[in-house]
Amino acid sequence: MKIVVIGPGALGCLLAASIAIRTDHEIWLLDHDPDRATQLSKRGLLLEENGHRLNCPIKATADPAEIGAADIIFLSVKSHAVAEVLSKVSFLLSEKCLLLALQNGIGHLDILQERMHSNCWAIGVTAQGATLTGTGSIHHAGRGISRIGFLHAADDHASVLLKKTAALLNMAGIETETVPNILDHVWDKLLVNVGINALTAVSGCQNGELPESPSLRKRLTDAVNEAASVARAKGVRIGADPVAATIEVCRATAKNISSMLQDIRRQRFTEIDAINGAVVHEARLLGIPVPENERLVREVKNLEAHFIP
Ligand code: PAF
C-alpha cells in the first residue's frame, strides 16, 4: 500500500517511523515546509524507543502531486490547520483511499463533515505519548490504545479500509481497535484535555502538579464537570467519572509538559479553540453556563496575544 502521513509533528513522525521500520509499505510524509521535507527525505526519522535509537528511512515532500494516489492518509496536523490542508490535498482523496483524522478536541469534526465528499474518512483518538525532540526526531514515551471509527454510516468498502488501517497500525506496533462509538471516545479524550491542557499552559506547570495544588485541582474539576454537562446534554455517552479519569492521566503523565504548554513556550498558536473553546461554543448553543472554560479560553488567548512577533 501507499501510506501518507500529513504533518511532521510528534504523532505524525511516530506513525511514519513505526510504519517505515515495521512494515513493507511505501510511506510518505507530507510537510508544508519544503526545506524540512528535503532534510527529512535525506536523513529519515529518528525514533527513540525503549532505550534504542532507530533510523527510519522515509520519503518526504511538500508537494502532494509528487505522491500520487494513496491508499491510506493519516491527517496529523493541528486542528486549526485541517481546513487549509484538506483543500491542498483534495486531489489525493478518492473513494479508494481512507483519510484518518487524528486531532485533539472536536474543532475538526464539523470541518471534515462539511468538506469530505466521499464516505472514506474516519477519525481517531490515541493515548500514545510522543514528544518531538528535534526535526524528525521523536521520543516514544508511552504506549496506549488508539481507537478509530466512523462518524457516519460507512459502506462496506470504507469499513474494509478502516480494518486495513487498524491492521497496519497494529503491525507497526501502535495498538489500535476499530470502534462503533468513536464520538464517545473523542469526548472522553476531550474532557481530559479540557482539564489539563489550558490549565498547565496558564500555570506553566507539569501535568502532575495539577492535582497536588488545591486551587488548580478545583479549576480542573470545574472545567471537566462543565464540559461533562455539555457532553451529557448532547447525548454523548462519556465515562462515569471524568474528573477521576483526568486526575489519573495527570498522575500517569506527571512529568509531561502538555502539548498546549509546549505550544505556548514555542510561541505557537494553541488548540484552545478546539478544546475549551469548543466546549464554550457547544455550551452556548445549549444554554449551559461554563464559566471556568470561558476563563481558561480568555487566559490562553491572552498568552497568545503576547507572543513576540
Ligand atoms: O495534549 C497533551 O499533552 C496530552 O493529550 C495529555 C494527555 C494532556 C498529556 O500531556
Outline of the structure:
This protein has 309 residues and is an alpha/beta fold. The chain has helices spanning 10-22, 34-43, 64-67, 82-88, 107-115, 156-171, 182-203, 214-233, 242-252, 259-265, 276-286, 291-305; strands spanning 2-6, 26-30, 45-49, 52-56, 59-61, 72-75, 98-101, 121-126, 129-134, 137-142, 146-149, 176-178.
Q: How would you describe what is shown here?
A:
The protein has 309 residues and is an alpha/beta fold. It folds into two domains: 2-180, Rossmann fold (3-Layer(aba) Sandwich), CATH 3.40.50; 183-305, N-(1-d-carboxylethyl)-l-norvaline Dehydrogenase, domain 2. Helix content is 47%, strand content 18%. The protein is built from twelve helices and twelve strands. The chain has helices at residues 10-22, 34-43, 64-67, 82-88, 107-115, 156-171, 182-203, 214-233, 242-252, 259-265, 276-286, 291-305, and strands at residues 2-6, 26-30, 45-49, 52-56, 59-61, 72-75, 98-101, 121-126, 129-134, 137-142, 146-149, 176-178. The strands form two sheets. It has an eight-stranded mixed beta sheet with strand order 5-2-1-6-7-8-11-12, sandwiched between helices. It has a four-stranded mixed beta sheet with strand order 4-3-10-9, with helices on one face. Strand 6, helix 4 (82-88) and strand 7 form a beta-alpha-beta unit. Helix 7 (182-203) packs antiparallel against helix 8, helix 7 (182-203) packs across helix 9 (242-252) and helix 11 (276-286) crosses helix 12. The longest helix has 22 residues, at 182-203.
